Amino acid sequence: MFEYDIKRKPVLKPVTRCVGILTAFSIAVISGCAAVPSDGPVASKVEGSASKDSEVSIPKVSLVFDVIQVDQRVANNVTQLGQPSLASTFGFGGATATPLIGVGDVLSVTIFEAGPDGLFSTNDHKSTTIPVVVQPDGHGQIPYVGAVKFVGLTLEQARQSIVNSLKAKAVEPDVIVNMTDNASRTVSVQGAVARSTVIPLSLGPAPITRAIAGAGGPVKSPYDTYVSLTRGNKVGTVLLQAILENPKDDINLRPGDKVFLTYDPRTFSALGAGFKASKIPLESGEVSLIEAAALSGGPNSLVADPKGYFIFRYEYEAVYRQVAGADRFRELLSQGMMANKDGLYPIVYRIDMADPQNYIVAQSFPIRNKDVLYISHHPSVDFAKFITLITGPVRIYRDIDAITKN
């Protein structure tokens, strides 16, 4: 590494000086802000490039969330409670309620009399049929009776009301009331359907899928189509695929309901060790964590940490309370955890895939729309970068030394 001159004093070769400079540079880098290479500028560099005359100071807001270790209990709770349900929001539906007469309905009122010379009978006909349109004030006109209130009555109640009004005027009257046009008993179906329409409800059950079929059906696949039901001040949204797979969510509609279909392709993002950063479509009703990892191409075993599988998402409150515990959830709220615009709370799930049994657990853990699947680098990767950094000057020295010898 050094030689002696005629005065027997050590003299460094130029190559050795170069190695010393490079080594000192490496030590300076290692002792600085970053010990390993990065993919971009450090934060201080970005912030330092801002205008020095700026007087606006934006307070930093820390995002509060919890990291939950996934086991079979957590996976089951996320699966069972993590899907919104129309049945839980609006009730199971059951049998259709008895229809009531409303404004705009067209009724057919047939009045029978026992005698041939009555108000509504002749020698040839024992009855007269009268069309009645229910007016905005809720009444309709019946000859010799006048205004009769129909709104809010069943067909049988309307029939009995007319009979009672005619007893003192007609000969042993009897009445039949039929609905020929139920203009007040309709639902609207709009959005991603073949044709937006207003559908009259029959007197029988009226499930959501029947109304959607009446509008020509969805124009996109069920696993990418959301169904929103608005009833009064309540709104519920579920995946159409979930309704098809879970008949109890195919609840019966009521007059005035609004059904809106939205096409929103479901995706998740894959980031981290070995993944080619990408946004991947969820092309089926349910995709498990194992399937999501496979769709992402699988982690790189040379750099990925099998203990560091993370799923970042916004979660439903009911799920959060169950997997983290009610006390922990309240504690997070007191620390400033906030819901997003949809009322969901930030959470991170972690699963250790170095444990063989978690390959079974991961098959029942569902990946949701807009999830971020992240696999962390193994700690040895950063160590390898560190070794590469400090051994770089040695390789440079060897190359230069080889050149000088040649």
Structure, described:
This protein is α+β, with helices and mostly antiparallel strands and 406 residues long. The chain is 29% helix and 27% strand. The chain has 12 helices and 20 strands. The chain has helices at residues 14-30, 43-48, 72-81, 86-90, 155-166, 208-214, 240-245, 289-295, 317-324, 326-334, 358-361, 379-405, and strands spanning 2-4, 10-12, 66-69, 106-112, 127-133, 139-142, 146-149, 174-181, 186-191, 197-200, 225-231, 234-239, 258-263, 267-272, 278-281, 287-288, 304-315, 345-351, 366-367, 372-377. Strands 3-18-17-20-14-15 form a 6-stranded mixed β-sheet. Strands 10-9-13-11-12 form a 5-stranded mixed β-sheet. It has a 3-stranded antiparallel β-sheet with strand order 5-4-8, covered by helices on one side. Strand 11 (225-231) and strand 12 form a beta hairpin. The model is unreliable at 1-12 (pLDDT under 50).
Provide tags for this entry.
six-stranded mixed sheet; single chain; 406 residues; five-stranded mixed sheet; alpha+beta; 29% helix; 12 helices; disordered N terminus
Q: Report the radius of gyration as a whole number of Å.
A: 38 Å
Fraction of residues in β-strands? 25-35%
Q: What's the number of extended β-strand segments?
A: 20
Mean pLDDT: 82
Shape: elongated
Question: Given the structure, what is the number of helices?
Answer: 12
Q: By helix and strand content, what is the structural category?
A: alpha+beta
Q: What is the strand arrangement across the widest sheet?
A: 3-18-17-20-14-15
Which bin fits the share of residues in helices? 25-40%
Poorly predicted sequence stretches spanning 5 or more consecutive residues: 1-12
Q: Report the end-to-end length measured between terminal Cα atoms.
A: 17 Å
Major sheet details: 6 strands, mixed
What assembly state would you assign to the polypeptide chains in this entry?
single chain
